[in-house]
């Protein structure tokens, strides 16, 4: 089984490399001979299109294009009710500060376009903290607006021919480590209170903090995204759906200094009061490298609730843990109905990790009687190799994590592994066909119960959304 697991992992990696190579060749063949013509798949096509250079954009990597983006988007807003508009960013290096999107709008990046985030703090407006968090993460005051930002929008697309958005985060990481930040660092992409969102076919680099943050939003497709940040960079999470409904994340490759995907819904009393869960989330064909964090994290800010999360065909290499649940007394909320299948892990500290004593609080006003509810956590068809410890499962005294189910799981321990492969406290559940033998709190039900931990058979509503092929010809590239 261990050899077979290694073959599965290696085979999947080879497939990913080949697919990426073929995609690159396809992109070159489509845009190489006719660089002013391009096509892509999207939730909606646009009746009008313009280039950033039409509004004074200069792609020399030195000139600020913040005003060019603002002017272009302001002009294109005239077409919101007339078939929508697209802003094309051609090849070049486009330095810019934060700018806001509009509804019925597409931002499209050429394959050789690079958006460079400005390091001039004057180009990053400060806004209020998120209402479900009550304060900023880096500082109690407000937060810098994300590089690409939007709120109260509908029908928004950020896509390209694998164009690049570089957050140039080293400047911000230094400010963070030196404790010089007055406000919380910006994210690369953030959309709030919005509906019908697509973020696809882009390379995102070196965000000051989180890379992609949809929040208080619904009907979201995130597909074909490559994210790369140093594994030592602080809080550079990959994709963080936060109080969102009906989301699918597919075909993404993430290397980061924090969780590759972190599912959230608010912090302590602020998240409880705001009361907006993350639910109906599908994560498919994700590849993650994050030596100090999780492949998929649920929490720790989960006070609005997390439910109906479905993850499948997940690959993690040199990552701290597979799927991790993070919560604490005072969080309140819940994490329930979580389903994970076909997960391939190699070189991990823990295959499974649940923590009931994680993280700090927003302030001293949290309710110490607000206990989180963790139940219905299902894993099946998991192969792991070179793992230091199979599982670390730590519930909360008098508030156990219940309904844990693991089936058809094989974990190959590293040569230097922990003497005790499982530690379990304040949990309850069952297992079937799990190696090495789990702790006594997860009794084996025998091979006849291998059908346990099954995925729900029905699709999520977001799975019914089909993309259209959109074609455009620009007067100049």
From TrEMBL:
Task: Give the main localization category.
Answer: secreted
Q: Does the keyword Secreted apply?
A: yes
Q: Which domain of life is it from?
A: Eukaryota
Output the Gene3D superfamilies linked to this UniProt entry.
Answer: Single-stranded right-handed beta-helix, Pectin lyase-like
Q: Which biological processes are named by the entry's GO terms?
A: carbohydrate metabolic process
Please state where this protein is localized. Secreted, Cell wall
Signal sequence span is 1-26
Q: Which InterPro entries match?
A: GH28_Enzymes, Glyco_hydro_28, PbH1, Pectin_lyas_fold, Pectin_lyase_fold/virulence, RHGA/B-epi-like_pectate_lyase
- Occurrences of domain Rhamnogalacturonase A/B/Epimerase-like pectate lyase (ranges): 53-97
Keywords carried by this UniProt record: Cell wall, Glycosidase, Hydrolase, Secreted, Signal
Which Gene Ontology MF annotations are present? polygalacturonase activity
The family annotation for this protein states: Belongs to the glycosyl hydrolase 28 family.
> What is this protein called in UniProt?
Rhamnogalacturonase A/B/Epimerase-like pectate lyase domain-containing protein
């Amino acid at each position: 089984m261990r050899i077979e697991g290694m073959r599965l992992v290696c085979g999947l990696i080879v497939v990913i490399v080949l697919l990426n190579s073929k995609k690159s060749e396809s992109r070159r063949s489509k845009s190489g001979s006719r660089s002013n013509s391009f096509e892509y798949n999207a939730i909606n096509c646009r009746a009008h299109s313009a280039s950033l250079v039409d509004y004074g954009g200069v792609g020399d990597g030195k000139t600020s294009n913040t005003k060019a983006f603002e002017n272009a988007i302001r002009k294109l807003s005239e077409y919101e009710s007339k078939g929508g508009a697209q802003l094309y960013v051609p090849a070049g290096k486009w330095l810019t500060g934060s700018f806001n999107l509009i509804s019925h709008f597409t931002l499209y990046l050429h394959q050789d376009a690079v958006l460079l985030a400005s390091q001039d703090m004057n180009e990053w407006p400060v806004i209020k903290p998120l209402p479900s968090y009550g304060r900023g993460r880096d500082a109690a005051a407000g937060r810098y607006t994300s590089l690409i930002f939007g709120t109260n929008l509908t029908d928004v697309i950020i896509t390209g021919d694998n164009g690049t958005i570089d957050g140039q985060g080293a400047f911000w990481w230094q400010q963070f480590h030196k404790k010089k930040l007055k406000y919380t660092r910006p994210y690369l992409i953030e959309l709030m209170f919005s509906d019908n969102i697509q973020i696809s076919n882009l390379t995102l680099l070196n965000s000051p903090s989180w890379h992609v943050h949809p929040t208080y939003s619904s009907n979201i497709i995130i597909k074909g995204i490559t994210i790369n940040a140093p594994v030592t960079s602080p809080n550079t999470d990959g994709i963080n759906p936060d109080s969102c409904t009906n989301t699918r994340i597919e075909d993404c490759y993430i290397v980061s200094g924090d969780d590759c995907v972190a599912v959230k819904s608010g912090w302590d009393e602020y998240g409880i009061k705001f009361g907006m869960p993350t639910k109906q989330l599908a994560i498919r064909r994700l590849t993650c490298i994050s030596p100090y964090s999780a492949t998929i994290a649920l929490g720790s800010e989960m006070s609005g609730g997390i439910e109906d999360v479905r993850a499948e065909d997940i690959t993690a290499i040199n990552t701290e843990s597979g799927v991790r649940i993070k919560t604490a007394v005072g969080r309140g909320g819940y994490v329930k109905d979580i389903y994970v299948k076909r997960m391939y892990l190699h070189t991990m500290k823990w295959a499974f990790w649940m923590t009931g004593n994680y993280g700090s609080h927003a302030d001293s006003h949290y309710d110490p009687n607000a206990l989180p509810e963790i139940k219905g956590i299902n894993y099946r068809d998991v192969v792991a190799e070179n793992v230091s410890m199979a599982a670390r499962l730590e519930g909360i005294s008098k508030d156990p994590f219940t309904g844990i189910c693991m089936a058809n799981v094989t974990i190959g321990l590293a040569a230097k592994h922990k003497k005790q492969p499982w530690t379990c406290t304040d949990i309850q559940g069952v297992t079937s066909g799990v190696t090495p033998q789990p702790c006594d709190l997860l009794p084996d039900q025998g091979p006849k119960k291998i059908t346990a931990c099954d995925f729900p058979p029905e699709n999520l509503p977001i799975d019914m959304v089909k993309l259209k092929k959109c074609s455009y010809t620009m007067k100049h590239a």
